[in-house]
C-alpha cells in the first residue's frame, strides 16, 4: 500500500518511523510519502490560509496550494482514495479500517484552522474518490492526529504488518463485540486471582467464558453495538 499525507506539520508523522508501522515501511509493505503543503505556495510567507468569505471567526485553508499538492499525487496514481479527516465526515470504525486496508493508494489531506476551501473537495472529486472521515463527535485543531490513528488502524490490518494475524481476530469490534478481559502471570497479584477457568486447560469452556465476557461487557459499555 502507498500512503501519502499532505500537512503543514510534516514532522508530526516522524512517529510513523517507529514500532510496527516503521517495520512495515522498512519491509516495503507500506510506502509512505509526507508532503508539506507550504511547498506548494509561491509567496514569501508560504501562505496557506486566508479569511473566510461571508465573514466569521478563524481562517480557511486556501485552495491553490491544495490543488497543486493533490495534482501531483493524483497524477502519479491509477485509483487513489483521498481522505480528509473532518468532524463532518462519516465515522471511522473497524469496518472502515478493514475496507481501507484493501486500497492500493491512500492520500490523506490534513486540514487545519476552520477547514479547507470547499472547492478543493469538489475539484478533487472530479479526479478521484474522496471521503470525509470523522474519528467521532469531537473537534481537533487539525487532521494530523486523526490521520495518525487511521494509519495505525489500517496499517495493522495489512497482511504481514502484525506478526501473528491470529491476534487480530479476537479484538474489540472485530466480531462486532468488545474484547474479553485478558490476564497473564502471576496467577495471584495483590490478592487478585486470575479467573480459574483460564487455568483449567479446558479450551471449549475457556472459549465459552470469553464469549460470555464479550457479551456482558458489550451489553454494559456499548449496548448500541448489540442493536439494543
Ligand atoms: C480538524 O479535524 C477535526 O477536527 C477532526 C477530524 C476527524 N475527526 C474528528 N472528530 C475531528
Number of helices: 6
Gyration radius, rounded: 22 Å
For the biggest sheet, the summary is: 5 strands, parallel
Mass-distribution shape: elongated
Question: Secondary-structure element sequence?
Answer: EHEEEHEHEHEHEEH
Instruction: Compute the average pLDDT.
Output: 94
Instruction: Note poorly predicted spans.
Output: none
Quantity of strands, as a count: 9
Give me the side-by-side strand order of the main sheet: 2-1-6-5-7
**Helical coverage, percent range:** 25-40%
* Strand proportion: 15-25%
- Give the distinct bound molecules: methyl 2-azanylpyridine-4-carboxylate
Structural class comes to alpha/beta
Distance between the termini: 37 Å
Catalytic activity: guanosine(37) in tRNA + S-adenosyl-L-methionine = N(1)-methylguanosine(37) in tRNA + S-adenosyl-L-homocysteine + H(+)
Keywords: Cytoplasm, Methyltransferase, S-adenosyl-L-methionine, Transferase, tRNA processing
Binding site for S-adenosyl-L-methionine: 111, 135-140
InterPro entries: Alpha/beta_knot_MTases, tRNA_m1G_MeTrfase_C_sf, tRNA_m1G_MeTrfase_TrmD, tRNA_m1G_MTases_N, tRNA_MeTrfase_TRMD/TRM10
